Amino acid sequence: MDELRAATRQPTARTGLIEFDGTRNTVSIPCTISDVSGTGARLKLNWSLSVPKEVTLIFGDGLRKACRVAWQKRRLIGVAFADGVASLDEQSLMMTEEEQVLHRKQIGAQVRSVREARGYTEVQIANLLGVSREFVSLAENGEMTIALHELTRIADLLLVDLDRLVAGPALSGSPAVGSRASAG
Q1: Are 20 and 4 in contact (CB under 8 A)?
Q2: DSSP letter at 8?
Q3: pTM greater than 0.90 (yes/no)
Q4: Distance (Å, rounded) from C-alpha 106 to C-alpha 121?
Q5: Which of 93, 114, 109, 111 is nearest to 38 (CA)?
Q6: CATH fold group of domain 2-81
Q7: Which of 16, 26, 75, 35 lies closest to 54 in space, CA to CA?
């Protein structure tokens, strides 16, 4: 959960709703989606009471995401998407094109950092993945989206969690070794 909280989030200031089952019926609370990433969001609620651990976040365009509440401080809550990393289609509904570009750059920077820490060159990774060196370069620079199946293979090759590539903080030293997270 800490890696999901550390995910690079993009400011959005969009409106939405959270829904959960109350004692008698479904409760809907308006919220401001203050920032979002591929793994979760930070919300400002128009409600000061605590919320249950599982809620549904409804974006302005109708996209519904099941979420687990990671933390709550009065009217601010952090949620992690219950089904893991949002699909590219979902992310396009949650984030503007500019936000998606920044997210791609951050993922690419993570891949480059881990690759370099593990001692691989762009050519070596390209050969292991069966792609061109140009693809690796473009992806690491955020100029091309890395498909989830390719990110999963990269995580396996570099012996890191998929979450570390998608949501982790910028690496300054050796990456944490871990098993690949499920591609949810």
Answers
A1: no
A2: -
A3: no
A4: 19
A5: 93
A6: Thrombin, subunit H (2.40.10)
A7: 26
Query: DSSP per residue over 32-101, as a string?
Result: EEEEE-SSEEEEEES--S---SEEEEEETTS-EEEEEEEEEETTEEEEEETTSSPPHHHHHHHS-HHHHH
- What distance in Å separates the CA atoms of residue 68 and residue 79, rounded to the nearest whole number? 5
**Residue ranges of domains in the chain:** 2-81, 96-166
Q: Which two tokens stand for residue 12?
A: 């959005």
Residue 144, classed as helix, strand or coil, is coil
Hey, what are 156's tokens? Answer: 């396996």
Tens-digit pLDDT profile for residues 26-46: 998 898 888 887 788 889 988
pLDDT digits (tens, 9 = 90+) for 59-101: 877 889 999 998 888 888 889 898 887 877 787 777 777 777 8
> 12: buried, middle or exposed (CB in 10 Å: 19+, 13-18, 0-12)?
buried
Q: Quick one: CATH architecture of 96-166? A: Orthogonal Bundle (1.10)
* Residue 141 DSSP symbol: T
CB distance 12 to 95 below 8 Å: yes
**R_g over Cα of the chain:** 18
